[in-house]
């Protein structure tokens, strides 16, 4: 008569990979990708430079191939919105960018110029926001 004997093998040094391990990381990656696509604006954005001196704040944007008639600027509720339409062959692109303005801008004196594809918007500061020198008297 034969007898069956079961052998218990020692535990392996490396366990078999769990088919569910890493699933949470993969789900997070899928959601991040889907949400990033949904958060992308429909109109492409373009870079702008912001800088200031003692009298003005400036917004500078490079818009090659865009004419003055195809640029629109709007000041609404503390935001400057730049919109530019550019035609590239058969395709037409609308570029847009909104920039939060500092509270010390004189909105009624904003000026803009477009020279050689570079748009410069000048935002004058209010008088009380401009730095002024204070003399110190010696006693």
Structure in a nutshell:
By secondary structure, this protein is mainly β. 12% of the residues lie in helices and 36% in strands.
Describe this protein's structure:
This protein has 139 residues and is mainly beta. It has a domain at 48-129: Immunoglobulin-like (Sandwich), CATH 2.60.40. Helices cover 12% and strands 36% of the residues. The protein has 1 helix and 7 strands; from the N terminus they run αβββββββ. The strands form 2 sheets. A 4-stranded antiparallel β-sheet has the order 1-2-7-6, with no helix packed on it. It has a 3-stranded antiparallel β-sheet with strand order 3-4-5, with no helix packed on it. The model has no long low-confidence stretch (mean pLDDT 79).
């Amino acid at each position: 008569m034969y007898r069956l004997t079961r052998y218990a093998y020692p535990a392996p040094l490396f366990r078999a990979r769990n088919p569910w391990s890493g699933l949470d990381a993969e789900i997070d990656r899928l959601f991040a990708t889907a949400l990033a696509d949904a958060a992308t604006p429909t109109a492409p954005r373009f870079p702008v430079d912001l800088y200031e001196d003692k009298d003005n704040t400036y917004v500078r944007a490079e818009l090659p191939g865009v004419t003055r008639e195809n640029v629109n600027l709007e000041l609404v509720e503390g935001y400057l919105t730049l919109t530019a339409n550019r035609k590239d062959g058969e395709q037409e692109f609308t570029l847009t960018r909104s920039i939060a303005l500092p509270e010390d801008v004189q909105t009624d004196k904003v000026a803009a110029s477009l020279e050689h594809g570079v748009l410069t918007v000048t935002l004058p500061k209010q008088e009380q926001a401009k730095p002024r020198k204070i003399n110190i008297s010696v006693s």
